[in-house]
Design a protein that fits this description.
64% helix; globular
Length: 278
Amino acid sequence: MNPGKTAKLLLNAVIVLIPIGIFGATYFILGKWPNYLFNDIDTEGVYRLEQQLFGIATSDGTVLTPCEYFRIHHIAVMDILSGLFYLCWVPLPVIYALVLTWQRHYDTALRLTWAFLTVNIIGFTGYYIHPASPPWYVIEYGFTPVLNTPGNVGGFENFDTLVGYPLFHSIYCNNANVFAAIPSLHAAYNPIAFFYAMKVKKNTGWQTTLAIVSVGIWFSAVYSSHHYIIDVTLGILTTIIGIAVFEKGIMRLSCIRNAFSATERWMQSTNYTNQKRT
């Protein structure tokens, strides 16, 4: 491959991934100011609502949340599948954005990653408006908020045990803030990629993959006790709102449209810097 072409492809990828970098930096910065410093933590309210809406009655009359039920009733194949699905939460949308870039669908790739950032901003705002504990917290600690609680693998401990490697322990042991369960952004990310995959013709493979993974992550979030069904539903709603804000609001601004058009034209250009001049 022409070295100039390779450099241009890499630069195009960097441009597409700029919003992902902003997302990562924002997440790191917000970790310095936990949401529970600004609002009270909801530990019992969301639990009781989940129990009321989706509770599963046992033979002794106890009503379990779906998360509590799956903590008791889990099987190895689902432990593995749920872990594999959950690991796709950010990597798969990023990979798909890079695939779109490679395929020269620059406008779609740019819209995907900037919509991704928009959804995160809305989701982060939700974290600070309503700090909430994840299901595993209630299972482990009850309803009393314990600040600076370390991250917990929840039901993914079964995955780590089965594969013989502490993968999820390494991910969650450094979790900056465990009281950020509403909305579930794990549930939000792959549907963003699916939305933009639907705009590309002859793209059935990616459309199917992203749809399956989206549903898989929604289930895995509950199965692993990392999110209630309520959290997942609000995460999906965050995706819908975020895409609407981006497509129907931000992209309606002429300055933004012009910036996108100029960026896409530059990315489409084939005048590589090290090409021989004639």
